[in-house]
Amino acid sequence: MEGSAWNRWKGSMPKIGIRPIIDGRRGGIRESLEEVTMKMAETVADFLTANLRHANGDPVECILAETCIGGVAEAARTAQRFAGENVGVTISVTPSWCYPTETMDTDPFRPQAIYGFNGTERPGAVYLAAALAAHNQKGLPAFSIYGRDVQDITDTTLPDDVKAKLLQFAKPALAVAVMRGKSYLSMGSVSMGIAGCIIDESFFQDYLDMRNEYVDMSEFLRRMELGIYDKEEFEAAMAWVKENCREGEDVNPVDGQRTREQKDEDWAVSVRMTLIARDLMTGNPKLDSMGYGEEALGHNALAAGFQGQRMWTDFKPNGDVMEAILTSSFDWNGIRQPYMLSTENDALNGMTMIFGHLLTNAAQIFADVRTYWSPDAVQKAAGYELEGMAKDGIIHLINSGPAALDGTGRQSREGKPAMKPFWEISTEETKACLEAVEWRPAVDFFRGGGFSTDYTTREGMPVTMARLNLVKGLGPVLQLAEGYTVELPGEVHDKLDLRSNPTWPTTWFVPRLTGEGAFRDVYTVMNSWGSNHCAVSFGHIGGELITLASMLRIPVCMHNVPDDRIFRPSAWNAFGTGDAEGADYRACAAYGPLYK
Predict the structure, then answer these.
(1) Where is the catalytic site (predicted)?
(2) Which pTM was predicted?
């Protein structure tokens, strides 16, 4: 397992800066507040450190200002310190009135929150309101954290509602900071005319502060032919594949099936592709010792995509093994952080996977949003009446290869199926995931052969389906649907699944309905989806996705998140409180991309 302090990207992981704000008036006022203010900051820092980890397993570090901040001099000193400590997120805390414009954080690119103590001895809430007004007037949106119930000024505990808001702010804010300066690596170009593969560099630059890197798929051929990969690791990987990857039935016509010798070579090529894609993304010091110093560096890619179809798959094994193994939380080297690798180089879905990964720390399911099955259609096709959570219809999520093996649902939390951060996964759970998968010889439209993963996701997982889309004249929008995975009786599953592709992984998804808008029924959810692809995260993380989108100034065009879980900057209220979706659009348009 890669150690918890292992970071595959260049540079250190971003930290959270805690800014204790104080009334700067001397002669008794500041002095009476020094201890309680710094204690409040320490309590917030301790809570966040205890409850947050980066996706690579590192604990999230909080940096406290060296002194309380009572004016501009101390604010500037703190800003300088934070810059040297790679602070990417700030939270200002205070139990009292202070001077807002003199103490605020004015960095326009750093997500900011203000926690104003709800007490009556000193009006922390008054500072909170005044500071938020200052942020809004200056065009620096900030998040408001304010406890519902009044506390005594000597009460150093964090109320549950404050804890919830601290976490809902901090995790998306860290995601914003992690993305900065990283790359999206295109391995190939546009697959089969899919628009999500068309790299819009202005989106990556202006909204995410990421760069775009490109290699042609011929780079895989070059590295395979010249042996630019770790030969020892390749042998270990092949032994692991032989022991753990169970081949399934070949459904191709007999005269179209590949020989045993060809299939063995497909495995070898697929494993080499996996090693090469990983090395392209994040580098490999072993290559330097082999005389390939440039190749050893990698592209510092937070995410990548592989075009595959058709220029590659018409004559070489498909990328399904590569994509399934890399996006999973384990391989021949053991349990480790998954890589985010998008099939068909769908960069927009690749970044949706990144959003989900950075919010959950877990693997993601990449899928086609393939088919809506109504109760009547299921009855007609399989003679079965849908029941339970599936009674109103189901959505068939299925795609070739890149659905992480974690998506089998064979990991568990409190006895229920889950997809977990890698440091929570046991060896027994990785074995259970592998045992739930058949590697099926690729179907005939993959003319170059290869293998695809075939599994069915266990039922009962709370999940969130999401997707970034680009719309001409509007820009990026995010859509999401919280719901659950379900299973069907074996014979019913087969009758429906075999109508699509029996060699691919299936997730039967049921969205949570609200009876309104895009969520009035399951059909409308499917009909409102803006692309052929989606990314699926474990857990109901719609609230966190909405918070993240607001930080990046990306409006959310479709969601089923209850109002009490929606957390956006306080400035959004100024754009209308009666129409939250419209206010979100207006605010994002007014502020524009975060980094433009």
Answers:
(1) 344 (proton acceptor), 368 (proton acceptor)
(2) 0.96
